[in-house]
Amino acid sequence: MAQTTSRRPAKIAKTAAAKQATAKPVLLSGGNPQIAKGYGDAPVQAYIAAMPGWKRDVGRHLDALIVHNVPGVHKAVKWNTPFYGVEDQGGWFIAFHCFTKYVKVTFFRGTSLHPLPPGESKHKEVRYLDIYEDGLDEAQLVAWVKQASQLPGERL
Predict the structure, then answer these.
(1) pLDDT average, residue stretch 69-82
(2) Mean pLDDT in the chain?
(3) Number of independent structural domains in the chain
């Protein structure tokens, strides 16, 4: 007698995968999107698309600004945060993360930037810029991005 195998487990797995692909990402505390770790533009774009409200426009603007000013920039999402780096510099130079009322931009070698970004950190070289809904100083941000991309990257 020939044995038959059920296709039911495969069908259930396929249905679950399809639901997961179309499901909205979970928003963690502060509205930060939960996005799986990944390298390249796709996970960063998924993170930006999942950012809530006005923060999505800030994310798009940050991404475009970084890509425009740092040719060949590498991207990744780690710890539910987009990271940007330059291969020749050996690591990441900038990242951003959603909080309830602002988007926090992290400069991993921020103490080497001029002028210093305003936010202090408990980490020796890190500085922050908090972007609120009312906007940002784009010229200063571009200057910091250009400076940061020339510094040794942070390996995380």
Answers:
(1) 97
(2) 89
(3) 1
Report the amino acid identity of residue 2. Answer: A
Asked if residue 3 is part of any domain, the answer here is no
Question: Is 24 within a domain?
Answer: no
Does the residue 18 lie in any domain? no
Cα separation, 41 vs 82, whole angstroms: 10
Specify if 86 maps to a domain.
Answer: yes
**Residue 115 preceded by cis peptide, ω within 30:** yes
Structure tokens at 148: 């940061």
Angle, alpha carbons 59-104-122 (nearest 5°): 155
Arithmetic mean of pLDDT, 102-117: 98
DSSP secondary structure of the chain:
------SHHHHHHHHHHHHHHHSPPPB-GGG-B----EESHHHHHHHHHHS-THHHHHHHHHHHHHHHHSTT-EEEEETTEEEEEEGGGTEEEEEEEE-SS-EEEEETTGGGSSSPPSB--SSTT-EEEEEBTTB--HHHHHHHHHHHHTSPPBP-
pLDDT in tens, 128-147: 999 999 989 999 999 999 99
Domain range for 122 is 30-149
Look up the CATH number of the domain holding residue 89. Answer: 3.90.1150.200
